[in-house]
Amino acid sequence: MREDWGMRFGVLGPVEARVGGAVAGVGGPTVRALLAMLLLDAGRVVPAERLIDGLYGAEPPSGAANALQSQVSRLRRGLGDAALVEGRPAGYRIVAGEDDVDALRFERLARDGRRELAAGRHDAAAELLAEALGLWRGPALADVSAPFAEAQAARLEEERASVVEEYGAARLATGDAEAVVAPLRDLVDARPLRERARALLMRALHGCGRQAEALAVFEDGRRILAEELGADPSKELADVHLAILRGDRSEDGEPRANLPAQLTSFVGRDEELRRVGKMLADGRLVTLLGPGGAGKTRLAVEAAGRERGDVCFVDLAPVAPDEVPKALLGALGLREGGMRPAPGGRAPDAVERVRTALDGRRVLLVLDNCEHVVASVAGLAHRLLSACPDLRVLATSREALGITGEALRPLPPLELPPEGAPAREVAAYPAVRLFLDRAEAVRPGFAVDEGNVRDVLRICRALDGLPLAIELAAARLRSLPVRDVATRLDDRFRLLSRGDRTAAPRHQTLRAVVEWSWDLLDAAEQTLARRLTVFSGGFTLEAAAGVCRDDDAADAVASLADKSLLQSDGVRYRMLDTVRAFCAERLAEAGETERFERAHAEYFLALAGRADPLLRSGEQLEWLTLLAADHGNLHAALRRSIRRDPVLALQLNAALSWYWWLRGRVEGAPLAAALLDEVGADPPEGLEEEYVLCVTNAVSGGVSGEQAVAWLDRAETVVHGIRRHLRYPVAIVMWALAAGPERTDNAVFAQQIGDDPWSRALVKMSDGFVAQFAGDMAGAERACAEAARGFRACGDRWGAANSLDTLAQIADWRGDRERALALLDEALGQMELLGALEDTADLLYQRGYVHLHGGELDEARAAFERGVELARRAGTPDKVAGGYQGLGDVARLGGDLPGARRLYETALTGYASERFIAVAVRGTALTGLGWVALAEGDAGRARELLHESLDTAFDHPVFRHRAFAAAGLAAVALAEGDAPRAALLLGTAAAANGGRLPADPAVAPVSSQVRDALPDDVWDAEFGRGAALPLGEALTLARADGLPT
């Protein structure tokens, strides 16, 4: 949260937002519930589906997504700053830091307090835990009754109870028993079955000299347990009872532990720490898995430090397989020589001595660094766990022990911020928190800010979020600026070659960490590991076998995953970049890099070629998901091929074109531009179609200026020279939308389009667009309805949604807004399934206009805001500008003329090209500014702006702004007292809008005033004369209005 806002939030009691100490009026029950849901995940995106489920439960209202948008808009207004609640493609996120939300601050203070308690720093623990408890103002979520609230409130109350217990333990350890009697008694009264709280209360009372009360608390607990659970008191409760009877205030003494002392704070693994604690509570053997440097040892030490009872830590890194039992003996404080054998007998072996030492004791055995002695550890752990029922084992390894009862906890890299996250937010993410913590130790005062945030993120991201690598990089800040550290990471093994001299040799440098794992591989595993480095972003077993030319790759891949060289989600495998960099060096040393990068490119060209036609079929979603999973591989294959094999690159670019178009048109633009530079002005023979698609990808992605014009000029000649059915029928769509109508020859395209069902549907959709642009709404409706049926039959959601969009526009034009919204709901459902951000933004803008035409400004604003967010996410400035133009309309109709002007001007400066789509944005924004000027009483300036709008896009096929500009000129004429002229211009507006006046609510009052000012026959004559004009003549007349003759 930005400090200058002074915004603080509370859910530990009634939901509240405070600005500078004053409570802000958030809104009604649903808005408060929405705020609470966002706050409990502050700083993270909460999926829209989860918000709807949490707010409405099993019976959400119809149009739940729209209802959610409306609640978000109300929340933004209640908070007084729309930027506080960000919309993202998957949902919404409140911009708040950990210390800005009382529940999150409570949880952080609780974690810190527990850490201090585990380390034996009882005073510090008590202070932190007391501060945490002081944040509570009443029952959690006291005024929220939404379906999600009960479970969340119960979770928070359970955490509160645990903190009261830990606070009690800390205060008792400092000798301040009196301070905790009251809170512990309140907790026991509220939760009489909590035996730990009861035991602590007994200890506190005993510590205050109130032995009789302490014994009474025990008797009450024994009775309640028997009545309600049919159970006896736990061993912990019985032990405290016995100690009180004996008058022993020291009780059993502190548990014994030989955990290694830690010199740095524990950062970034709070969730894993919680989960490991639960796994240890539920099971007896837990193994932490992960690559070298993932932080397994540190997590194990922290988790063990929270356990009650004895803990024995055994470092197995320097131990040979046959020395494992002896290492345990040493850790347990037993001499290796052991007991003398009885006469004629033999001394018990080391394992038997360990078993004897552990039998009957509640002990957590921490076995650290098991990967090189995994077989020995597995056998020993199995034998000890079978013989010692009170024993638990926590192991760390790069490979599972593989015995019955083992619970595995793979340790993922530390969480990284999303791309483009601002400096005020990134410090909350674990990877950055660790870097900052360690950096501050060597460079006091170091903090992340807007000046260095990119470098910090680059470091953490390049090092895969691996804790050891991040710590080594932070240590380099002692002698290097953060920017130098970031730029030198291309040679990470050289840069991170100096670490803690007191650490084990395998942890002193980044290379040593990876080399330790590499040396544990056999020859076949090393061969496959180095060849897998050609993949980018992961791979399947099928891809590994195909690229590495190894039909038996599955076994080796599984082995590499077992040894933590690969990460797996069950379907795909991924090599961490640090491991990949090391193994890529081995690939280069073997002289195999070019060979396997070529194999990689050929494999993914075949995959993309197979996918392209299926992206226009009922398998569309399945193949979009498949290609999205291999996004990194597809781009890597194209990038490597641009210089090495431009022909293959052109083929791959073409095969990926529709995938890029559906998922975000800017993705392939830089690669397409680089490929065009390599290919030159003339396409290779037989690849003319591929060349045209390359140009459309470059231009659609925002490449503009003279270079774009030159590419379009050349591609126009090429595309018009193709007189056959296209291999990629999507080229017709992409060319028309990228190049514009003036470069589109429908007669040529008629020869290029095929006769398959998808192409026939495309023809009908194109016919509908042409009819709509010409004002033939009935013809447009027939054609697009047929197109929608055709696309549905093919299974193409994109085509169906675009056809429905046009049908919705026509329904809105007719005034049937209920049908328009229903059609848009269906279209949005299809586009959201595709993940087509830009197209979804278009549909949201259309929804915004439907609401705007009905006077529903809040709903319109919500739709435009959501569309802007998606367009920004898609990286399309023209679409972002279009959304600001729509928000300008909302502000104008809401009476906020300064706000409207700012938004229109933002739209004018925001579009990034001269493509015909951007021209529509410019024309519409100028029209809006003209209406604003008129509302402010400046009719002359209004006329100038409206003329400029018509001049900008006189021949543009999108008619909405042209008709609205003509209506604006009618309003100017009315303001100047020329009602007949106003009637004529209103007629031209109707002519430009298919025979109806524009639906913008500002037009109807103008029309009413003009009619009231004129006799009926004059109105009919003047309006009819304008309305009867052909489209071109009507616009010419409107454009000439008021100009000197």
From TrEMBL:
<dbReference type="Pfam" id="PF03704">
    <property type="entry name" value="BTAD"/>
</dbReference>
<dbReference type="InterPro" id="IPR058852">
    <property type="entry name" value="HTH_77"/>
</dbReference>
<keyword id="KW-0238">DNA-binding</keyword>
<dbReference type="InterPro" id="IPR036388">
    <property type="entry name" value="WH-like_DNA-bd_sf"/>
</dbReference>
<feature type="DNA-binding region" description="OmpR/PhoB-type">
    <location>
        <begin position="1"/>
        <end position="96"/>
    </location>
</feature>
<dbReference type="Pfam" id="PF00486">
    <property type="entry name" value="Trans_reg_C"/>
</dbReference>
<dbReference type="InterPro" id="IPR011990">
    <property type="entry name" value="TPR-like_helical_dom_sf"/>
</dbReference>
<dbReference type="Pfam" id="PF25872">
    <property type="entry name" value="HTH_77"/>
</dbReference>
<comment type="similarity">
    <text>Belongs to the AfsR/DnrI/RedD regulatory family.</text>
</comment>
<dbReference type="GO" id="GO:0003677">
    <property type="term" value="F:DNA binding"/>
</dbReference>
<dbReference type="Pfam" id="PF13424">
    <property type="entry name" value="TPR_12"/>
</dbReference>
<dbReference type="InterPro" id="IPR001867">
    <property type="entry name" value="OmpR/PhoB-type_DNA-bd"/>
</dbReference>
<feature type="repeat" description="TPR">
    <location>
        <begin position="841"/>
        <end position="874"/>
    </location>
</feature>
<dbReference type="GO" id="GO:0006355">
    <property type="term" value="P:regulation of DNA-templated transcription"/>
</dbReference>
<dbReference type="GO" id="GO:0000160">
    <property type="term" value="P:phosphorelay signal transduction system"/>
</dbReference>
<keyword id="KW-0802">TPR repeat</keyword>
<protein>
    <submittedName>
        <fullName>Tetratricopeptide repeat protein</fullName>
    </submittedName>
</protein>
<dbReference type="InterPro" id="IPR027417">
    <property type="entry name" value="P-loop_NTPase"/>
</dbReference>
<feature type="domain" description="OmpR/PhoB-type">
    <location>
        <begin position="1"/>
        <end position="96"/>
    </location>
</feature>
<dbReference type="InterPro" id="IPR005158">
    <property type="entry name" value="BTAD"/>
</dbReference>
<dbReference type="InterPro" id="IPR019734">
    <property type="entry name" value="TPR_rpt"/>
</dbReference>
<dbReference type="InterPro" id="IPR016032">
    <property type="entry name" value="Sig_transdc_resp-reg_C-effctor"/>
</dbReference>
